[in-house]
Amino acid sequence: MSNKTKSKFLLALKLIFALIYIGLTIWLAWGLIDVVATPSENTSLSVALYLSFVIIIFGVIGYAIALIPAIIGLIATIIKRDRGNIIFFLCAVILPIITEVIFILLGKALA
Predict the structure, then answer these.
(1) Which of 49, 56, 45 minimizes the C-alpha distance to 101?
(2) How far apart are the C-alpha atoms of 89 and 71, rounded to whole Å?
(3) Shortest CA distance to 88 belongs to which of 102, 101, 76?
(4) How many whole angstroms separate alpha carbon 55 and alpha carbon 89?
(5) SS3 category, 81
(6) Which tens digit of pLDDT belongs to each residue from 57-99?
(7) To pair with 70 at 20 to 30 A between CA atoms, which of 19, 39, 84, 108?
């Protein structure tokens, strides 16, 4: 693979990761805000159900899908020894994990 092909490949991996990560994070945050802001008789039950089904199940699956291009990019940049991209993909591997933990803790605090 030439350098130009590798850079296009890494750019594609970055875009795929960013689109999945940002889209999923916005969707989870929007849903959590909607559950908390919507008046209901039992808000804590609504938050608990949202936490159980949406944040834990869909969040874990979605962030795992976002990790796939991040891990592929990390492996490719380690082999290539591209320092700037290693830092990006290392952050891309860690960020979904931290975000999912924050959503779970936030949901537990609100429930």
Answers:
(1) 56
(2) 7
(3) 76
(4) 24
(5) coil
(6) 999 999 999 999 999 999 999 998 888 889 999 999 999 999 9
(7) 108
Q: Is 85 left (phi over 0), alpha (psi -120 to 50) or beta?
A: alpha
53: tokens are 């089904």
Distances (CA, A) of 87 to 9, 25, 27, 52, 70: 17, 21, 26, 33, 11
Structure tokens at 34: 């909607």
Helices (H), 1-111: 3-37, 43-49, 59-80, 83-110
pLDDT tens per residue, range 30-53:
988 888 888 778 878 888 888 888
- 51 is written with which tokens? 């936490």
Quote the CA–CA distance of 70 and 12 in Å, as a whole number. 11
Q: What is the largest CA-CA distance in the chain?
A: 61
